[in-house]
Amino acid sequence: MIIRESCTCPLEIVHDIIKGKWKTMIVYQLKDGNTSLAQLERDIDQITQKMLLQHLRELQSCGIVDKIKTEGYPLHVEYYLTDRGRRLLDAVLIMQEIGIDYMVERGQTELLDRKGIRYTS
């Protein structure tokens, strides 16, 4: 991930941080607290472990996500949102609402129903 050195707007920096297919979904999945890598893999359809680890490292390098390693065998690692990550989560939740509204307007509610996502028609 490359974050530009100079910019004309702070949104360019945020775009650099969250661009990529999976980053906003990772932030969303961490909304309820500490989560293991295996649980994130299960919760995010079609993400590979390689891509998940890459995006987690990038989000960690920007101070959005951090991890806790539990000593012992087997090693257990949990990821969580930092303060900055929780602020970003507020924006991700708004984006989720916009996506839901868009899908409802177009009658694309099958996925919402299947995933148990609440909406009003």
Low-confidence stretches: none
| N/C terminus separation | 39 Å
* Number of separate domains: 1
Number of strands: 3
Strand content: 5-15%
Q: Order of helices and strands, N to C?
A: HHEHHEEHH
Q: How would you classify the helix and strand content by structural class?
A: mainly alpha
Mean pLDDT: 93
Discrete helix count = 6
Could you give a short account of the major beta sheet?
3 strands, antiparallel
Strand order of the largest sheet: 1-3-2
CATH structural fold name? Arc Repressor Mutant, subunit A
Question: What would you call the shape?
Answer: globular
- Helical content stands at 40-55%
Looking at this structure, what is the CATH superfamily?
A: Winged helix-like DNA-binding domain superfamily/Winged helix DNA-binding domain
Rg result: 16 Å
Indicate the CATH architecture. Answer: Orthogonal Bundle
In the CATH scheme, the class would be: Mainly Alpha
GO molecular function: DNA binding
InterPro entries: HTH_HxlR, WH-like_DNA-bd_sf, WH_DNA-bd_sf
Pfam families: HxlR
Keywords: DNA-binding, Transcription, Transcription regulation
